[in-house]
Amino acid sequence: MRFVLFKILLELSRPLTLVLLLLTLVIILFQKKKTIAAQAVLLFCWISLFIMSNQGTNHGFIASLEHQFPALSIATTPTAEAIVVLGGTLSRLTPPRIQSEESKGSRLAYAVRLFQQGKGPLILVSGGSPYKDIHGQMRTESLDMKDYLISFSVPENQILEENQSRNTEENALYSARLLKERNIKKIILVTSAFHLPRAMTWFKKYNLEIIPFPTDFKDATGENYSNLIPNAEALVDFSLALKEYLGILTLKVL
Predict the structure, then answer these.
(1) Where is 102: in which H helix or E strand?
(2) Is a pLDDT exceeding 80 seen at residue 130?
(3) 51-64, pLDDT tens digit by residue?
C-alpha cells in the first residue's frame, strides 16, 4: 500500500507534471470564460516554476536534507562489520551501453574506497528492480553493482547481494535480514546525501549501529547572482528533494 501510494504521489508531484496540470486548468478556465481565475492560476504556475527551477530559492530545500548528516573523510570514518551501499546511481546494461557506469552519483566509488582502506571486510549491495540486458537476459541492479565492484578488484566472496528490494523501505528490510544471518550489527551506510535521512529512518528500525556516509552532495554552489536564473539542474534537484520529503511523509502517515 505504501509503495503504491508513494509512486502515485511521486508521479503527480513531478515539477513538469504539476506545471502541465496547472496549464491544463488554465485552458479549461479560459474556455469557461473564467478569465480572472485563469490568470490567477497562470500566475501561480509561473511563480511555482520559477521557485522550482533556480538554485537561489532551491538552495535551502535540498540543503535541509543534505546537512542532516555531515560529510566524512574516508580516513576518519570508523570501521564497521560491513559496508552497505544502496542502489540508484548505476546505469543499466541496455543498448547502446555494454557496461555499467555510475552516471548518477558516486555511491559505489566511495564504497570501493572504504573497502580498500579497511573500513569494512565486506560490501552489501542493495537493489532489485529486474530488467532485460542487451542480450535479453534478466538482471537486477544488485548484480550490476556486484559486477561493478568486482571490476574494481573487490573480491567476489566479500560482496553480499540483496536483489529483492524495489525502494528504500525494502532496501532496509532485506538488507537487515542478510546482515542478521551473519550476526552483523555495525554498518557503514553509503548513499547520496539527500537520500540519507530517509534511508537512516528505515535502517534504524532494525536495531543496527549505523555510521552514515553521505555522498553526491548537490548543495555545493556558492552564493551567486546566476543562481537566480532558472535552469534544468535546479529543477532536477528540486525533484530529488521533493521525492525524499514525500517518502518521509508517507513513512510517518502510513
Answers:
(1) none
(2) yes
(3) 888 877 767 788 88
